Amino acid sequence: MKLLKDRILKDGKCFPGGILKVDKFINHQLDPNLMKQIAVELIRRYASSDINKILTVEASGIAPAIMMGFLLDLPVVFAKKKKPSTMGDMLSTTVFSFTKQREYHMVISKEYLQPTDKVLFIDDFLAYGNAAKGIIDLCKQSGAELVGMGFIIEKAFQKGREVIEKEGIRCESLAIIDSLDNCEIKLREE
């Protein structure tokens, strides 16, 4: 997706340790027009898929997921990273966050992820695949069918795609970063 790649090169910032900061337009300050184009492209890529729900993880996945839900007229469910006191019967798994360098519990109410659901998972980044593993686990626990996973940006050098494809799940990324060595953003040409 050329528009997204151009924006990454223009406004993305690289930090040591494989960190790409895109908070100017994706995950702190949002560009709604770009987010709409991202949603339209992910919808195009999954157009033939039979889905009835969009699934994501708080917080940065919510913006693209809600845009897709709006355009497709589908409900959006986000996994919470802390169990609310109001949540009773829930699904839970443990995930390690690369960004925060800590483990957290990912939870979803059983009421909102059921065996009849055919879900598409959407998130901002695919790195090591830890959030994806958590979502795969929650879907297995619920009996829901995970139709696919879509990401705005994939850091290919961190091998998260392998985790997803090993489970036989379709994976789509709109911009793939092959390297951030020497704090230079190297995007894959497709």
UniProtKB/TrEMBL annotation:
Pathway involvement of the protein, from the record: Purine metabolism; XMP biosynthesis via salvage pathway; XMP from xanthine: step 1/1
Known catalytic reactions: XMP + diphosphate = xanthine + 5-phospho-alpha-D-ribose 1-diphosphate
Compartments (UniProt record): Cytoplasm
Protein name: Xanthine phosphoribosyltransferase
Residues annotated to bind 5-phospho-alpha-D-ribose 1-diphosphate: A127, Y128, G129, N130, A131
InterPro entries named in the record: PRTase-like (IPR029057), PRTase_dom (IPR000836), Pur/Pyrimidine_PRTase (IPR050118), Xanthine_PRibTrfase (IPR010079)
Source organism (scientific name): Hallella faecis
Gene name tied to this protein: xpt
Record's keyword terms, sorted: Cytoplasm, Glycosyltransferase, Purine salvage, Transferase
